[in-house]
What does this fold into?
Amino acid sequence: MNDRVTSSDRGALRLAGRALPWGARTYVMGIVNVSPDSFSGDGHPDTAAAVEHALAQLAQGADLIDVGAESTRPGYQPIDTATERGRLLPAVAALRAAAPQAIVSVDTFKAQVFRDAHAAGGDLLNSIWGAPDDLIAACVETASPIVVMHNKAVAVYERDVVDEVLAFLRDAAHRCTRAGIPAEHVVLDPGIGFGKLPEHNLALLHALDRLVALGFPTLIGTSRKSTIGKLTGRSVDERAFGTAATVALAAAAGIDIVRVHDVAEQRDVVRVADAIVRGWRPDGWTERLP
It folds into this structure.
């Protein structure tokens, strides 16, 4: 892909000897669940199977791979730290060995688990529970970027959901930068489907421009979520087209990363959306018809 259209003042995600300039295009983060109880039914608790899945996603065009070992589906049962380590660390280490240039995100909310995963080859932290001080400290210590997601134990909001979520993310981002994490390495995620009812999710998706206006890199994860199922009447394995609508709208709003299960399909969505909205073109582009 051609990264010629950039927003240099926004910086870049710089990891694994690579730079992903913010604003150049919409980056695709592939999901690898090293757990047996993923809501989407695509868990790969076996290390070899998880790495094979990750390599397939990289071949399909994923820019980053997000590896998690604890299901966070509605009603999930928490696992202990030893179990999470036993699933996560071998997968991260094996993926790093198999794909040295891959950017590997670690999906955990435990500081010591992240430190261990970083030592095994992980590059950045993806936290579904915001940015508590111990996670910020772990990222500062390891010089790692952080994805900060809004979440809530109960989907009750005392004020407008968009206002509340954006205020939470703004505060978290400023705490990260005050601690020493560069602003270009603080990625904000409104947490679609986490502590939110369907109307909350739709309100946030309608206001993605306000999320982008906070001035930090951004990520959304709508892939196969229950709100899409509620809107379409589709089962979890039939929601790629519904997801594609949110991915295209996210790209149009200027969202930087989309976290998806169906990498090949959503990679095509962002390519077309970015060509229209960001002026991106593939390598070798010409005006001649084939």
